[in-house]
Specification:
Layout: E1 2-5, E2 9-13, H1 20-28, E3 47-52, E4 55-61, H2 72-87, E5 90-96, H3 103-115, E6 119-124, H4 132-136, E7 146-148, H5 157-164, H6 167-170, H7 174-186, H8 211-215, E8 217-222, H9 229-237, E9 253-261, E10 264-270, H10 289-298, E11 301-307, H11 314-326, E12 329-335, H12 342-355, E13 363-366, H13 375-389, H14 395-408, E14 420-428, E15 433-439, H15 446-460, E16 468-473
Parallel strand pairs: 2-4, 2-5, 5-6, 6-7, 8-10, 8-11, 11-12, 12-13, 15-16
Antiparallel strand pairs: 1-9, 3-4, 9-10, 14-15
The protein binds guanosine-5'-diphosphate (2 copies).
Function: GTPase that plays an essential role in the late steps of ribosome biogenesis.
Subunit structure: Associates with the 50S ribosomal subunit.
Protein name: GTPase Der
Amino acid sequence: MKKVLFKPVVALVGRANVGKSTLFNRLTRSRAALVADFSGLTRDRHYGEGRVGKYPFLAVDTGGFEPVAKSGIVAEMARQTQQAIAEADVVIFLVDARAGVNAHDHEIARLLRRAGQRVFLAVNKAEGMRNAGAIAEFHELGLGEPYPISASHGDGVVDLIEHALSFLDEGADDDHADIAHDEDAYSEVFDVDAEDGLPDLDAESEEPADDQTRHRIKLAIVGRPNVGKSTLINTLLGEERVIAFDMPGTTRDAIEIDFEHEGTPFTLIDTAGLRRRGKVFEAIEKFSVIKTLQAIEACNVVVLMLDAHAEISDQDAHIAGFIVETGRALVVAVNKWDGLNAEERDRIKHEFERKLRFLSFARMHTISALKNKGIQPLLKSIRSAHAAAFSKLSTPKLTRVLVAAVEQQPPPRKGIFRPKMRYAHQGGQNPPLIVIHGNALDAIPDAYRRYLEARFRAAFKLEGTPLRIEFKSST
Ligand code: GDP
Ligand code: GDP
């Protein structure tokens, strides 16, 4: 059992219209386009990966914040915001330079002072503002030095985030450095210099991956409360190994539990039982979206657990969307399959498949964690999803598949340009990244990208992992 550190969480807080989502999009360089069809569920993105300077982090956009409301949907948002504040490592409190300080800002400031978190006051929409007094006015919120920024133009944003994350340099944070290092190891598996023309097509690149990354499967089991996560973990580990954690820790701590299944070493990333203490917001829910996201970040393969007896909710869709965004390998487990009759099973399966169409790259299993049914096939799919995520895609074969795909169906012309794809190589793993080189590739439409993706998927049997395609034009 080891303790690991997660990526730090940066929460964006402030009243409506101050520019939270603008800043969020800038920090996360929105990959929303990857998260296609939620079948009627909301597509709002509130969580994203960011990197400014040397540290990667998770950004959380808390949405509007009305701390005074006592009930209804607004109160629910306030509750979620408070949880996000409690769980964040850093809070960026946004105010509006043009509107000046208002009563609402004071209300939020009061809450933030009580929370005892690291808070950075960002005075947004400050582009082109020469009047220092307008910024200085925000001192009265009692949250220290205001940082003038412009979320839409980018002014001051890097500086702000670097300051906000500078606490990471203070403590010994070696574990965190490990995570960052691991990630670097995943990208840039091949290094083909486009300037030199075609890579050697006869050389099958057989660069061996680090054995640890290749064989040990880092697994996270995520899902809403009561879907059966703890039950599945107990089933996987064996009852005798049930461990009740209750130790103080920060939100960036998690527990790793090693186990083996048929010779394959697994590490389970478990977030259960850890909670922050001595804060105002003590009543942290049993379920934490942020911990869920951090666990997804830290693993290679996610098991997304759903309850056969419950509807798929927006929250499920958010988590699923985040899995796709981070590119983690995925297996869906529909739990509590025991005690359903054939008709119910048919209906539920059909409905889940329809709603989760955007996860069609993943296998869906029906299981009973309680009765230990369907667990072996689930583990098998986890292993194959992991293998797919870490596949080695040789340049010659990638290029052959590409050429065959283009022969069968060339990309559409755009104006006088016909995009020309010359060769493909692998640019990363977990998820596999295929880099296609050629000319005028900016003109390739999404539908054609999806066509290529399907061809690569079929040729390399990439089931269970998202797949990324990147186009690099030399003209
Ligand atoms: P949220 O409700 O806090 O998420 O705010 P939004 O990000 O939706 O922004 C509200 C409005 O402020 C939008 O019209 C944005 O275009 C505008 N806005 C955001 N950032 C800036 C900025 O840095 N400068 C200016 N002038 N407008 C901004
Ligand atoms: P968690 O909150 O996701 O960790 O969910 P738990 O593992 O605590 O399970 C919540 C409830 O669902 C408990 O009462 C479990 O006994 C029950 N449960 C878990 N798995 C199954 C299952 O496969 N079938 C049935 N019928 N109940 C289950």
